[in-house]
């Protein structure tokens, strides 16, 4: 069922031929949906959770000891703390920071008015038109890293674009890191599932960037979920001790299916998500003041038929807008939303849900958008075609955000009205000739021809066209250049650690 | 190729079983993307068009005479007028007005914070999974009126849901009006292609509502395009003389493909659209001060490959947001956007484009959204399945707009945190049990089940599910009750006019 193997050419020249859009520097205003009364209500709920409800830091005495030492109120493993204190700790995190990429042209600034798109994270399955649905493996992982590297609208590589299930869990993070570090030169995340794996990630990043650069800059980040409701386990706190203590980034994301891991109300779930992520941010700032931190939110609604999570629905849409506003008030970079769907295939449902989810994510000002391309099945499956379909659409959002509405004198086109009469047309006028080549964004996968032209070339639907594009991309992939000594050092690190580690499959 | 004929049952009781969502009364704030400088630039361009460029009122001496008599500057057929005067005339139009429906429960208020969704208008072709693509006919028209009537998220019937090409052009408006007036009890539009057809529409509406009601209320509207650029032909001015003089509504819509009917820049096209529509509004207010008027905008981008119009792209998205803000400043109800796409079928392209187009339409505050469901092929084709797929998604927008984020005490769910421990779940707690049934909107056509459950019921994509729903709806359609004497009078009017009119096919 696997895709056919493809030879990987290594390029000799110094340019890769991959043109990346820069990350988005937004000029468009934000869409603030909350009024003062709503803000007060939500923020006082957040503060009430800090002070009265508390958040458990479980199975990690080291974390609990730090909280105790710093003066938090501990009861069992529940940590409660004055809201002012938690907020003042969060204020120590940078409002924006830059994650360096191996290729400096692909470094991204996260926070403020900047918005960065990364692909799906964490799916155990993959799907494409030829191979159908199957477990992810290292071959698929390589394909997905290459596609992400090649697509101009993805600014960041993410990390687990699929789970490579053919490699032991205890070792796969090494192969995944090696793939990101050699098959792509975009920035990426590291492992978090166990403290030693987080350490491997940081150590391998140090091989790529060198100790001095890493001491001074964020070059890798860990992305972790809290165990909602109101629970932070040691995966989170241990990853923070590795990444944050080293000055690297942490993305902390409460995943709340409203009605299960949070109250069935959107407002309460939003407040809970803020409280959980901010409490971890405060912990991170206790570890290392000024460590880069991204406040995450992943809120899903529920199908009443089955209790299954639903995506692209009005509740997560409004929560995206709301949390954008709340995050800006706290001054923390935000991760939320994505191109999310519960659909199993690349059909209209997938696209409707992904578009509504992503439109609100974009307008909400999310600074780091994991899952911005490739999602199927509520995140259980990475679609090759879906990845490219979503990524193509991201170019549209990029233009809306970074250009807004141009009202320069040239954009007002007054000279054109001197040339064109009432009832005439602007097709050949000087203003059009000057501007038409940059006037419109057209995704490569949209077919806007008339029905006859479309039928002539085979009446292909979007996923068929996406499949052709995927194959073309993989066939023309060229590895970006890398210093051979760095590549060798990475390979040696991976080999050594694989020797040391047992094969563990869970 | 036509669908199988279906018997139309007439119901006897007084309830129709069709539950319509009320039109949207928005609580969500607007998304204002323009700053003061942009607004000044755009509005001064609009004023410059009024005063210096002018707009042609062609082939209609009656319209030109009125402008001349009222003091506009006429040169050939170009009308120029002081901007203050045009704006003061526009200010005479109501900021919002109610269009009565035959069933009072379905009357809609258009303008202000109200938003009303209507289906596609004007497609010569139809498509469904069984019949494929074919010319529209009266049977298809009946089907589409029924589906629109039955779908709770469509508040308004529109008018030309497809062109019934099997009826002569000279007579088809009569059959279309009769269908809207008897197969549905939602509000609808009338004909505009010729003055006598507009008159038939108004006369038939008077049969339904009676002269007194019609004298005091808007019960029907005409929707017309200007001939961009900068040209208003007699179709527009004659329709205005029929509808507006009778106190009925006019929707006036510049259709601008940027680079063809307007400059290739979005800002200039937006300003031109404002100027064209406002100039017609001014004309309408000269005819009858206070006549209901909807300022329309239909802006499309262009494929560089072929010059074909493209939809759901960043340029129309930003234009939707911008024109929403400009229309609110002028104080006129706005028609813009819709669920637009250039795709030929109900695939992911159709859904991505429709969703981005509609998301921005919705957030922009469009008060009357024609084309909110059913579009394919840039408006050349009405999809049966697409109509229902889009309409299902409209429920999500409806919830976002009309509910915003509920932060009531119950929504904050503090009692739930007394029941649920850290790491627990909210599935059975009292707050969830109180609220879960109304907590989430779930479109009927979204499948959020896991892949195994989805495969068990046939691995159906969204359009297959939509096709089943369409067939179920048409099979269970029941005609809404109507006073038999009104029905007879309408039938007699249609019969008499068909006698009088020649058969003309173009």
UniProtKB/TrEMBL annotation, chains A, B:
Gene Ontology process terms (BP): methanogenesis; methylation
Enzyme Commission number(s): 2.1.1.-
Keywords, ordered alphabetically: Methyltransferase, Transferase
Domain of life of the organism encoding this protein: Bacteria
Gene Ontology MF terms: methyltransferase activity
Family named by the database record: Belongs to the trimethylamine methyltransferase family.
UniProt name for this protein: Methyltransferase
Organism, as annotated: Cognatishimia activa
Biological classification of the source: Bacteria, Pseudomonadati, Pseudomonadota, Alphaproteobacteria, Rhodobacterales
């Amino acid at each position: 069922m696997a895709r056919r193997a493809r030879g990987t050419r290594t390029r000799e020249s110094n340019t890769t031929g991959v043109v990346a859009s820069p990350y988005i520097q937004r000029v468009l205003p934000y869409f603030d949906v909350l009024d003062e009364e709503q803000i007060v209500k939500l923020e006082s709920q957040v503060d009430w959770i800090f002070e009265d409800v508390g958040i458990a830091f479980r199975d990690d005495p080291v974390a609990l000891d730090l909280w105790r030492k710093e003066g938090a109120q501990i009861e069992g493993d529940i940590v409660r703390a004055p809201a002012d204190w938690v907020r003042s700790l969060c204020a120590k995190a940078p409002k924006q920071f830059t994650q360096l990429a191996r290729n400096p042209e692909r470094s991204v600034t996260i926070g403020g008015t900047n918005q960065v798109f990364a692909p799906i994270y964490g799916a155990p399955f993959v799907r494409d038109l030829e191979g159908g649905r199957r477990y992810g493996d290292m071959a698929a992982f390589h394909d997905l890293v290459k596609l992400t590297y090649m697509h101009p609208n993805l600014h960041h590589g993410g990390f687990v674009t699929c789970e490579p299930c053919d490699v032991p869990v205890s070792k796969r993070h090494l192969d995944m890191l090696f793939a990101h570090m050699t098959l792509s030169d975009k920035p990426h995340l590291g492992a978090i599932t166990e403290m030693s794996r987080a350490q491997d990630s940081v150590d391998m990043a140090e091989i790529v960037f060198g100790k001095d650069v890493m001491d001074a800059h964020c070059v890798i980040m860990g992305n972790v979920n809290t165990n909602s409701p109101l629970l932070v386990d040691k995966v989170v706190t241990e990853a923070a001790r590795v990444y944050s203590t080293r000055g690297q980034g942490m993305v902390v994301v409460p995943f709340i299916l409203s009605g299960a891991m949070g109250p069935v109300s959107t407002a309460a779930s939003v407040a809970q998500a803020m409280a959980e992520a901010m409490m971890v941010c405060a912990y991170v700032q206790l570890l290392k003041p000024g460590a880069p931190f991204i406040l995450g939110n992943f809120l899903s609604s529920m199908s009443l038929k089955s209790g299954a999570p639903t995506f692209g629905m009005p509740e997560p849409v409004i929560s995206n807008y709301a949390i954008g506003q709340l995050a800006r008030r706290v001054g923390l970079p935000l991760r939320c939303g994505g191109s999310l769907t519960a659909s199993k295939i690349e059909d209209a449902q997938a696209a409707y849900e992904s578009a509504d989810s992503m439109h609100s994510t974009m307008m909400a000002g999310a600074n780091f958008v994991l899952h911005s391309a490739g999602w199927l099945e509520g995140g259980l499956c990475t679609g090759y075609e879906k990845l490219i379909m979503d990524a193509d659409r991201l170019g549209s959002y990029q233009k809306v955000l970074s250009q807004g509405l141009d009202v320069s004198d040239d954009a007002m086109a007054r000279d054109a009205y001197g040339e064109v009469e009432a009832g005439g047309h602007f097709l050949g006028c000087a203003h059009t000739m000057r501007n038409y080549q940059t006037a419109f964004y057209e995704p490569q996968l949209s077919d806007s021809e008339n029905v006859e032209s479309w039928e002539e070339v085979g009446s292909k639907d979007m996923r068929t066209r996406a499949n052709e594009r995927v194959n073309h991309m993989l066939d023309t992939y060229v590895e970006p250049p890398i210093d051979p000594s760095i590549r060798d050092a990475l390979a040696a690190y991976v080999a050594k650690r694989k020797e040391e580690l047992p094969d563990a499959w869970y």
